[in-house]
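Sequence, please.
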């Protein structure tokens, strides 16, 4: 990966590969989880504290093969399980349904070892599944150890196994490193089971993407595209209209209601929840955002906010964490809101910054208005009451409040609270200095124009 970050912590669809894999395992109803860490283990262990605090961690101090990794897991496992599922943290498309089917196949067949396999057009690098004339599995041959004939086999080992507990404990401790990589191969337990006359089976998975691992950025990107295509297809099947799936990115944890329309270029990220009948986009990013039914969110960047039913957002709107727009509220063109509540039916229509503010029901904030919420040391709140009308180009210097039903004049700078029903005007009276241009700029175009009689403006410029 050529990265300072551990491979399994790289993300697709809003989760690390580790989290995707753990979700698949948890979906089987596993009684306990043992995570084996080795390379970059400090990073991975820190991630496990957050995403799998109940997992037991086993440390593989030397990377001596998959067999050694399983031995490390068994050394710390106290469950005494009858059956073990062994999988990997770099298989982000693997599903709980597939693992559940594999476990069921193992339990109903009476097999000691059940292998999840796939058939690849190009199996280079993968261990091959070897079968006898009857079709029974006899061994798994790693690519570097395979003969030319064995390399022609297209059925490959995914690395995912279900193994009976007593046999696994015994077989892993009997492994040797007599192979091309001088490692302990977990796959050698298959031949060991066959030599003991135990049943070994293979569960062939047609969906090869689920068994593909990730080893570089190209593979990570390809896996992300494939997973996103699956996610968009799922939501279209649930009644969501996606105009251009190729430019639509939806994280795995996000949810979208029916009859919602996604225009090109949306990103529905994190745990965002979008209601029904919503219009999103084009070119809109929602991170952990709740959007109510019937809202419209156009060309907007929003993070950790709540957008109420039938609210109208955009275009070119920036909604920062802690913001809530209630039912039928509006944040219009070139508006930025931070840690602000906009009440029912209230509007901030254009060209405004509202930070740390509470805007009451039915209030309207005029164009070019800002809250001056920071005094250099602390942030302060601004409270705008119900049905207030804030004039254009106002500055509200927090902490300050405007009472219910009050008005403020255009260009006002509000340093003091405004009583309910009052009109606040802070600008001084206008003074016109007659003939100033003629005296101060006598040779200018403005001076010459001022001497002309008023006439119709044709818009022509010479």
């Amino acid at each position: 990966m050529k990265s300072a970050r551990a491979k399994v912590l790289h993300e697709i669809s809003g989760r690390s590969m580790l989290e995707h894999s753990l979700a698949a395992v948890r979906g089987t109803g596993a009684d306990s989880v043992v995570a084996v860490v080795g390379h970059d283990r400090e990073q991975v262990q820190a991630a496990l504290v957050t995403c799998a605090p109940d997992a037991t961690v086993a440390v593989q101090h030397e990377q001596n093969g998959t067999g050694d990794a399983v031995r490390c897991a068994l050394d710390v496992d106290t469950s005494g399980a009858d059956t073990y599922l062994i999988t990997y943290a770099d298989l982000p498309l693997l599903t709980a349904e597939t693992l559940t089917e594999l476990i069921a196949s193992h339990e109903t067949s009476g097999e000691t070892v059940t292998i999840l396999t796939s058939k690849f057009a190009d199996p280079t690098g993968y261990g091959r599944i070897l079968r006898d004339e009857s079709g029974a599995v006899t061994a798994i041959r790693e690519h570097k150890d395979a003969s030319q004939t064995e390399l022609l086999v297209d059925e490959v080992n995914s690395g995912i196994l279900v193994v009976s507990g007593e046999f696994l404990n015994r077989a892993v401790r009997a492994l040797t490193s007599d192979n091309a990589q001088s490692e302990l191969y977990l796959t050698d337990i298959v031949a060991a089971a066959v030599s003991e006359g135990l049943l070994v089976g293979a569960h062939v998975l047609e969906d090869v993407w689920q068994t593909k691992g990730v080893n570089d950025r190209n593979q990570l990107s390809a896996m992300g595209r494939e997973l996103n295509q699956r996610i968009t297809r799922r939501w279209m099947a649930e009644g969501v209209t996606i105009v251009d799936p190729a430019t639509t990115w939806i994280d795995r944890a996000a949810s979208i209601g029916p009859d919602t329309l996604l225009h090109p270029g949306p990103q529905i990220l994190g745990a965002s929840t979008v209601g029904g009948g919503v219009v999103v986009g084009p070119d809109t990013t929602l991170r952990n955002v709740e959007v109510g039914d019937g809202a419209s969110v156009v060309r907007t960047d929003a993070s950790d906010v709540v957008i109420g039913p039938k609210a109208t957002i955009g275009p070119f709107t920036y909604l920062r964490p802690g913001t809530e727009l209630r039912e039928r509220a509006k944040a219009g063109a070139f508006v930025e809101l931070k840690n602000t509540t906009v009440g029912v039916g209230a509007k901030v229509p254009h060209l405004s910054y509202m930070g740390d503010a509470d805007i009451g029901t039915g209030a309207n904030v005029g164009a070019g208005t800002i809250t001056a919420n920071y005094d250099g040391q602390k942030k302060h709140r601004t409270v705008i009451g119900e049905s207030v009308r804030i004039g254009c180009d106002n500055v509200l210097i927090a902490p300050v409040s405007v009472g219910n039903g009050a008005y403020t004049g255009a260009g006002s700078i509000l340093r003091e609270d405004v009583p309910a029903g009052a009109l606040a005007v802070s600008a001084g009276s206008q003074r016109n200095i007659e003939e100033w241009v003629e005296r101060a700029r006598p040779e200018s175009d403005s001076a010459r124009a001022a001497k002309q009689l008023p006439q119709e403006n044709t818009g022509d410029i010479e």
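The CA atoms of residues 103 and 239 lie 33 Å apart.
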